[in-house]
């Protein structure tokens, strides 16, 4: 990079991108499993495993995040028509798309106007892909919220989906700022800020954030129990965003945040990707285990392509 500030920006942006990829790939083989089954089969799931896709593969979460990153690199903002086109071009159904998103992208591929595909879904599809927005616009929270909503509206019109996407993007933006300053995020401060930012979109979503238990200082088992007592770990947006945030706030390292997120069970690839984006933005790319990065898939739009986009995003 050209100078120290650019190098630091790359650490945060690439940290969020590859953190999300790693969380997605780590959670992929146990998606839909309850936590007891994960523990029985894998113990502490802290290394990449094969599942419905080969070891280190990303799912629909990261494939849609890729499209968001591509349009940010091209336009330096969210350009909805371009984003929709990229969603359609990158669409590989075997990655595991949810029903409504699958139908919407299939219609796009068959020539539908992008303005006709959005649905009134409260699911977490728009939040799972948005972490890169928080890192791309780090330090500019109005821009983060604006871009998070713009990318959400391409596929999701429900207030819960929109509020969740904003909360996730803003959490990653906060993680960038606090990590750069070397400041530890505090649960009450973070949740109060995020809730304030999304209350105008969905009071219900803001309430779910404010219900987040303070996981800091708990043991691993206590953290799991506290998050399970409050959230469902499912496709409903805030039931994924909130536990991902709890896992991030609990952990002192990138690895522990993502392992905790995946160990919660349920929508593991999504919760892992969300926590990975936050933790990667906070701790930086260099904090991600090398073994995890080495295991990520290669290919035309694999590891090297994501790395290229992260560098181009800062030009």
UniProtKB/TrEMBL annotation:
Entry binding sites for Mg(2+): 59-61, 267, 269-270
Cofactor section: Mg(2+)
InterPro entries for the chain: ADP-ribosylglycohydrolase, Ribosyl_crysJ1, Ribosyl_crysJ1_sf
Superkingdom of source: Bacteria
Gene3D superfamilies documented for this protein: ADP-ribosylation/Crystallin J1
Keywords assigned by UniProt, alphabetized: Hydrolase, Magnesium, Metal-binding
Manner of cofactor binding, per the entry note: Binds 2 magnesium ions per subunit.
GO molecular function, one term: metal ion binding
The UniProt record lists the keyword Disulfide bond: no
Pfam families the record matches: ADP_ribosyl_GH
Family membership noted in the UniProt record: Belongs to the ADP-ribosylglycohydrolase family.
Listed PANTHER family: ADP-RIBOSYLGLYCOHYDROLASE, ADP-RIBOSYLHYDROLASE ARH3
Protein name: ADP-ribosylglycohydrolase
